[in-house]
Design brief:
It is a multi-pass membrane protein. It is found in: Membrane. With about 240 residues, the chain is mainly alpha-helical. The protein contains six helices and no strands.
Amino acid sequence: SFARSLLRFLGFIFWGTAVAQAFGGVLVILMFKNYRYVFQESYLSLPGWLALAAALILLPTGFLTVSISVKSYRNQQGTLMYLLLLLLCLEISSAALACSYCFRTASQLESNVGYLVHRHNWTCSQDPGNSAVDVIQRRLECCGVHSYTDWLNTSSSSWYHPACVPESCCKEEHSHCRGDLGHVEQLYEEGCLKKLEGQLYFAMLYIFWCCIVLSIFELLAGVINGILMRHQPVHELHIL
């Protein structure tokens, strides 16, 4: 009776965590899509796709778990074991990839952002405003790699010697801002590197811990399902 009650509770947990898992998967996929200029490797979004696949499988798994807690059938119990094993493989793979990609990508992030800033072609009088750097700076509300002073060391500044930064560094509330360094209060103070690292760590660690917690719940559900199957005659377990 206690095992059935606990299994029913885990079934509802699976339904709830399916939403959290799907959110984490979409978060990772959109992050690498929105900042594809910085994260150029397409395989980096793989943990997100694995998390989405796990979220979809969690829905029928939760239904089977609740159903078995009410009345046990051999084919349902066998199917649940297979689904739990598949989910466990997906969760562990997603967690391992998220942890690995997080540290490997973070070490290359500064050089990638610095390269985009250095090769950005702009002038004070004519700011294109649609390059990869401009998109990143507007979306993250940041300026430069570490701060706006990074723009003073770019190839464009050394050629034109401008006393300004790209207009994408301007705060939204200052509509008349043109990136003039004489009005620093109108510019974003924080660099893009720190904000990108923050989003990367949040998305990957969210996936990692979500997968670890779900793996524990899945192992517990498998043990409880095995306990319930022990009370059935052996000849009825041929479905396994």
